[in-house]
Structure formats: C-alpha cells, structure tokens
Amino acid sequence: MAVKVEIYTWTTCPFCMRAKNLLKNKKVDFIEYNIDGDEIARNEMSKRANGKRSLPQIFINDVHIGGCDDIHALDRQGKLDQMLLA
C-alpha cells in the first residue's frame, strides 16, 4: 500500500516550500492543497489539524504530523522514513 501524504500550502510560504522540498528530496509523492486566500479551505484544514491554522499542515495516512518544523524534526529523529514506508 502506498503512503498517502497531504500538505496544505500557500504559494509564497517559505515554510511550505521547505516542507515540500524535503518530501521531494525523499522522492515522496504528495497531494498539495494550495489554499491561498480560501478561508473555507483553511477552516477545513484547521478542523483536520486540531485547530491549527498556520501553514503548512501535513498529514501522512490521514494522521496529522504538524508543520514544517515538525516534519523536519521527525526526519532528524529518523522517524519520517519509517512513517513514509508504513
């Protein structure tokens, strides 16, 4: 079963770009939801992300991972690769 990675972004968000680059460098396919100025989409994201409204918000197999700092911390700890193989 392929891992499902979803990321909510804004076009010009440097943290979004950094998180996407990490996934691209790992050759991970992901679904990107660009929600520039779309408050309805942002509210939906916030519901999924336990109330968080900052961007990016990242989900792996429908589990909320967090944002850019969180995914990079998982990578440094060696946990991200395990999650991407699950």
Automatic annotation (TrEMBL):
One function term, GO molecular function aspect: glutathione disulfide oxidoreductase activity
Annotated CDD domains: GRX_GRXb_1_3_like
Keyword Electron transport (UniProt): yes
Domain of life according to the entry: Bacteria
InterPro entries with a match to the protein in the record: GLR_AS, Glutaredoxin, Glutaredoxin_subgr, GRX_bact, Thioredoxin-like_sf
Gene Ontology BP terms: cell redox homeostasis; cellular response to oxidative stress
Swiss-Prot/TrEMBL keywords: Cytoplasm, Disulfide bond, Electron transport, Redox-active center, Transport
Domain Glutaredoxin: 5-65
One term under GO cellular component: cytoplasm
Family: Belongs to the glutaredoxin family.
Role played: Has a glutathione-disulfide oxidoreductase activity in the presence of NADPH and glutathione reductase. Reduces low molecular weight disulfides and proteins.
PANTHER family, per the entry: GLUTAREDOXIN 2 (PTHR45694), GLUTAREDOXIN-1-RELATED (PTHR45694:SF18)
Protein name, entry field: Glutaredoxin
